[in-house]
Inverse folding.
């Protein structure tokens, strides 16, 4: 009995000491359901940075742990909403019909880099889009976009007319509408499946930003990028946290999350994506990739062919109880 009591006392001392080292808080590890390759900027940069900031804020008692393959990319929203994981990042366009207002950030003609567009997106979400309540059972920590998207193909193209009838992976959201407007034979599948689709000939190319060409190794099989200086499209993402996971945090830990979330988190994520684009261009060149900019005539053709998309997206947002026209005007005013 004496040995047992001594053992229990020692164990209690260790627990108390551990809590004291963590600022008096029991350690809490949040599970992040993630996807894409470990070299992708979300996994290589964003989440490690977030983990460091949370540990700094909490005195080491709040941290993140990445878990791969808990669910395929289109199921990430359900995975966090249902509590299988605490946090995740989603592509809004991977869940057709659920998110309509977020498409405003994906439209052609939205110019800027990922950081600029992500900040504008989050501010627009806070001012307008959040009213639609499209994300239920979760906390939206940040909205953001990747850098400008391009057409990337196995065979070189110099005109949008050349992709009519071409089998291209389009990826959801406004990219689907653009593919339809340009006459593409759209192939819909999540980003991790693109390499196999292109290498096997199921797709002849892909709508992707340049960083993703490197992060998913697609530059190995599609070495030609056709770029539109006016901004072809982008893809919108959300960084989400399970409601119960958030509400069950201690006040101190919840404050660490709250201090991080919002516009500045969107800015930081966008900055990481811009840096990933810079690396993507560097790697693309090393792998023998070629970038061709659309001519003024091609840019005018693209604008004409996709001109009807904006009105459809604005109307869809308005159907969700959001002033779509005002929201888009506000978003674009932040990019000027």
């Amino acid at each position: 009995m004496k040995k047992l009591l001594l053992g229990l006392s020692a164990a209690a001392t260790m627990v108390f000491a551990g809590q004291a080292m963590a600022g008096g808080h029991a350690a809490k590890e949040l599970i992040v359901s993630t996807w894409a390759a470990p070299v992708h900027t979300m996994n290589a940069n964003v989440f490690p940075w977030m983990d460091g900031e949370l540990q700094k804020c909490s005195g080491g008692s709040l941290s993140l742990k990445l878990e791969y393959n808990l669910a395929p990319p289109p199921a990430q929203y359900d995975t966090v909403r249902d509590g299988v994981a605490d946090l995740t990042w989603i592509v809004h366009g991977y869940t057709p019909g659920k998110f309509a207002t977020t498409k405003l950030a994906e439209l052609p003609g939205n110019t800027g880099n990922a950081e600029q567009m992500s900040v504008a997106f989050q501010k627009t979400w806070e001012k307008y889009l959040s009213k639609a309540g499209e994300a239920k059972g979760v906390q939206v920590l940040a909205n953001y976009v990747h850098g400008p998207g391009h057409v990337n193909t196995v065979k070189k193209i110099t005109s949008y007319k050349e992709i009519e009838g071409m089998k291209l992976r389009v990826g959801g959201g406004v990219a689907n509408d653009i593919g339809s407007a340009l006459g593409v034979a759209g192939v819909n599948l999540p980003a991790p499946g693109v390499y196999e689709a292109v290498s096997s000939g199921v797709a002849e190319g892909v709508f992707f930003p340049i960083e993703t060409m490197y992060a998913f190794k697609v530059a190995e099989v599609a070495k030609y990028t056709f770029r539109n200086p006016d901004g072809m499209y982008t893809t919108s993402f959300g960084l989400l946290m399970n409601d119960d996971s958030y509400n069950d945090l201690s006040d101190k830990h919840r404050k660490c999350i709250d201090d991080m979330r919002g516009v500045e988190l969107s800015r930081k994520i966008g900055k990481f994506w811009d840096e990933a684009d810079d690396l993507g261009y560097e790697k693309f060149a090393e792998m023998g990739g070629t970038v061709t900019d659309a001519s003024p005539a091609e840019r005018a053709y693209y604008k004409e062919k996709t001109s009807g998309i904006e009105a459809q997206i604005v109307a869809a947002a308005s159907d969700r109880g959001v002033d779509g026209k005002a929201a888009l005007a506000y978003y674009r005013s932040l990019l000027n």
